[in-house]
Amino acid sequence: MRKLIHATLCAATMLAGATTIARADWLEDAAKPLAGTEISGIFLDRPGYRAIIKLLPEFEKKTGIKVNYEIVPYENTREKEVLNFTSQGDLTMALVDLVWIGEFAENGWIEPVEKFTADASITDPNLKLEGFFPLLLDAFGSWGGKVYGLPFDNYSGLLFYNSCMLKDAGFDGPPKTWDELKDVYGPKLTADGKYAFALQSLRGETQSADSFMRVLWPFGGSLLDKDFKSNLNSAESQKGLQFRQDLMKYMPPGIVSFDHAEAVNALAQGQVAMITEWSAFYGTLTDPATSKLGDCLAVAPEPEGPAGRLPALGGFSLAVASQASDEQKKATWLFIQWATSEEIARAYVEAGGVSGRMAIYNEADIKAKYKFVEPMVASWQKGVPEFRPRFPAWPAISEIVAEFGSKMMLGEVTVEGGAKEIGTRMEAILEKEGYYDGKKEKLQ
User: Which segment of the chain is annotated as a signal peptide (predicted)?
Assistant: First the structure.
């Protein structure tokens, strides 16, 4: 089972030598010996990355450190990073999805932050690891009792909806349960070429995580049981997967080709009334250049299932790549601290990012201005880091889930048959990896 890291938080904070006195010039002082150093990483074409790019000139001016980045589609990011790390390439910073943390840490591709927090000359005296939401630091940045990365691009699954469409259909608020969404809202909101709901389901990680896994937990199902055997043919898992099939009649045709951009755009343009999407897309849905919603945009927690409200959890941390030179490691550590700091949290949020820091969401004006804040913060009080298993075997299993999850939705296999196929292939991978003979810890 996943290890709790509360002790790690305390230890790492002590190593950082954190003080209650902030030095406004700490970054400039720390960067003086590193002026002219170039660091490099991968960003995604998503709001949080556009936000930090907008703020980058401030960091580069203060430090003299040049931040090089390449914008890569999510589907290609892990492969590109792994190839770079195994060939001793030029990346100095790792972008780590929560399901990659085990693979990256166990292969030694990223450095634990304790290596840097032990050096006060390059560590923010107000680093305050305890200032992150514990769930995020645990899920996105920690493995084996150590912190490797700091939460950067942080997501909670939320229900975004067109309140005007719902009102016109006779509803004064969003559905509270998944069954209500399908059975009550679905029929009334699907008419005249418009649809009640869109569930991004493109084959790949979008299918395996955003679509397939999203209907397991709320219905009491899961990918694996306590013995690390497939649990997909349990009554609860089957109920969730069948629910998804039944919900498709209220989704646009071709939903299996919808990635995040297509789902968000369908809501933004009035094609669908509701989507369950990541908090990070709030900026896209409020931008008049990309959305027609205006005051009709509303946000709520994801609906409850028979097992309760168990929203999707996703996000990334930034970590120092082990292959970097000593100077690049230090410069990269400075950038990561700055990009995830309380100091720039407000500017980051106002530019479209979603900070992992708790303090910013206590600000009254932030809560009032950004409708997603309260439901997102509520979901981070109780969450499921194993929403997608974080072990190193996940990337291979994800491909299997994506393949047969797509085939289920397309009617090429039955829900029961597809679940059996995933289970058989998944267990073969886990057996090969040593998960059944005691050679591997199961979940950190």
Answer: 1-24
Q: How far apart (Å, rounded) are the C-alpha atoms in residues 255 and 277?
A: 14
Which sequence spans correspond to the domains of the chain? 6-155+314-381, 156-312
CA angle 158, 401, 240 (to 5 degrees): 55
**Which of helix, strand or coil describes residue 142?**
strand
Per-residue pLDDT tens for 65-124?
999 999 999 889 999 999 999 999 999 999 999 889 989 999 999 999 999 999 999 999
DSSP secondary structure string, 256-276?
GG--HHHHHHHHHTTSEEEEE
Q: What is the pTM of this model?
A: 0.81
Cβ-proximal residues to 317 (8 Å cutoff; 6+ apart), any chain: 96, 98, 101, 140, 141, 148, 149, 150, 151, 152
| pLDDT, tens digit (0-9, with 9 covering 90-100), for 269-317 | 999 999 999 888 898 999 999 999 999 999 999 999 999 888 888 889 9
Q: Which residue has the tokens 């209500």?
A: 180
Amino acid at 92: T
CA distances from 410 to 101, 121, 203, 221 (A): 32, 57, 11, 22
Are 184 and 197 in contact, with CB atoms under 8 Å apart? Answer: no
Supply the pLDDT for residue 268. 98
| Phi, psi for residue 306 in degrees, rounded to 5 | -55, -25
- Span 6-155+314-381 CATH architecture: 3-Layer(aba) Sandwich (3.40)
What's 293-356 look like in SS3?
Answer: CHHHEEEEECCEECCECCCCEEEEEEEEECCCCHHHHHHHHHHHHHHCCCCCHHHHHHCCCCCC
Q: Give 439's pLDDT tier (boundaries 50, 70, 90).
A: low
Q: Rounded to the nearest 5°, which phi and psi values hold at 241?
A: -70, -35
Looking at residue 413, the DSSP 8-state letter turns out to be: S
Burial (CB count within 10 angstroms: exposed 0-12, middle 13-18, buried 19+), residue 435: buried
Give the number of other CB atoms < 10 A from CB of residue 88: 9
Distance (Å, rounded) from C-alpha 329 to C-alpha 323? Answer: 9
**Cα dihedral 444, 301, 225, 390 sign:** negative
CATH code of the region 156-312: 3.40.190.10
> What's the pLDDT score for residue 24?
56
